[in-house]
Amino acid sequence: MVITESQNSWMLGLLGLWAALLFGSFIFGKENSDHSHRIPRRARIASSFTLVIAAWSWWLFARESGVGQLALWIAVGMTLGFIGDLFMAQLIPVKDYVLGGIASFGLGHIAYIAGLVAYGNQTGLDEPTKRWGGLIFWLIIAAIAWYIVVFRGREHTVLHYAALPYSLLLASTVGFATGLALQHGTFITLAVGAALFLLSDLILAAQLFNKLHFRLIGDVVWLTYGPGQMLIVFCVFLYKTWRILPPVLF
């Protein structure tokens, strides 16, 4: 796979725009009335949409290469994640925006998992101990975190129970990404990105279910979630750009 100079510039431009929208708004934004965030909602949503454009752009550039199928699944997953952001920002008029967000993010992670598993099978990066060991490790972490953050000592609603399979689904993305990362360095950034996504979700769950509040909590959620999604979307591009990977994988 060969990335042209114009394609490289386009992807780097989108990466710079994403960083400016998210980190620039955090640096120069003003705190809202309850001191939960500095990044305006429009900047958060715009940064997420920028990653959607980047994901589909990368698929367009890579579709004929060995990572084309993976790029497609990541683009689908990022698009569903953006829809989840619209739900959580209450820009889609539904009664239960949290459930809508969980459903969208969950479907997005199913797409991520499908891409990771298919790519591992395609390239022979499917060593059972590393694949299933990584998965089991992160499932255990997510189950413990769900019990502590969401379930323990509280009255339980349908959302409390829905949060468990959702957390396990996010952990599965981290697990399969970890399994690939243990076999090839390409996927270290993707595994870190998926772990940041899981971390942001746990902070958000503590806010929603446990009334956790501290200064700029909303920004902490987005400054873990946003970079997490970015690392998933840009994973292969960054390694390809830095010429770290052997060409056989592409």
Q: What Rg is obtained from the alpha carbons, in whole angstroms?
A: 18 Å
Query: What string gives the helices and strands in order?
Result: HHHHHHHH
Oligomer: single chain
The number of helical elements comes to 8
Low-confidence blocks of residues: 244-250
Shape category: globular
What does the largest sheet look like? none
What percentage of residues falls in helices of 4 or more residues?
over 70%
Mean pLDDT: 90
Strand content: under 5%
Number of domains: 1
How many β-strand stretches? 0
Structural class: mainly alpha
Distance between the termini: 5 Å
Report on the architecture of this protein.
This protein has about 250 residues and is mostly helical. It has helices at about 5-30, 40-60, 70-90, 95-125, 130-150, 160-180, 190-210, 215-240. About 75% of the residues lie in helices and about 0% in strands.
What's the gist of this structure?
By secondary structure, this protein is mostly helical. The chain is built from 8 helices and no strands.
Question: Any descriptors?
Answer:
250 residues; mainly alpha; 8 helices; globular
Task: Give the arrangement of secondary structure elements.
Layout: H1 5-28, H2 41-62, H3 68-88, H4 97-123, H5 128-151, H6 158-181, H7 188-210, H8 217-241
Helix pairs in contact: 1-2, 1-8, 2-3, 2-8, 3-4, 4-6, 5-6, 5-7, 6-7, 7-8
